[in-house]
Design goal:
This protein has one helix spanning about 1-5; strands at about 35-45, 60-65, 70-75, 80. The protein has about 80 residues and is mainly beta. The protein has one domain (about 1-80). It has a four-stranded antiparallel β-sheet. It is elongated and about 50 Å long.
């Protein structure tokens, strides 16, 4: 559920961690690494559902967390802001 909420833009305070970096997998006791986290949701369009799109076409929504804890969004691999998504 965290992954779906995260990719759809839910604030980290409503997820497992208080800050985005808390969502990056790490092994307890190991030093912090340059790990990143990413969730990608792929939506398949159904017949007559979205203008200018054919049945079976896909829209991908992605959200990434950088090692510094900064979040970014992509729709169909094009970076955008949360307001656009």
């Amino acid at each position: 559920m965290d992954a779906v909420s995260f990719v759809l833009g839910v604030s980290s305070r409503h997820l497992r961690g208080k800050i985005l970096k808390d969502l990056i997998y790490r092994v307890e006791g190991e030093p912090p690494t340059r790990r990143r986290a990413m969730v990608k949701l792929v939506y398949v369009v159904h017949e007559d559902e979205i203008d200018d799109m054919e049945e079976g076409e896909e829209i991908s929504f992605m959200r990434l967390i950088s090692p510094s804890g900064v979040s970014s969004y992509r729709v169909d691999d094009v970076e955008c802001t949360w307001e656009v998504t």
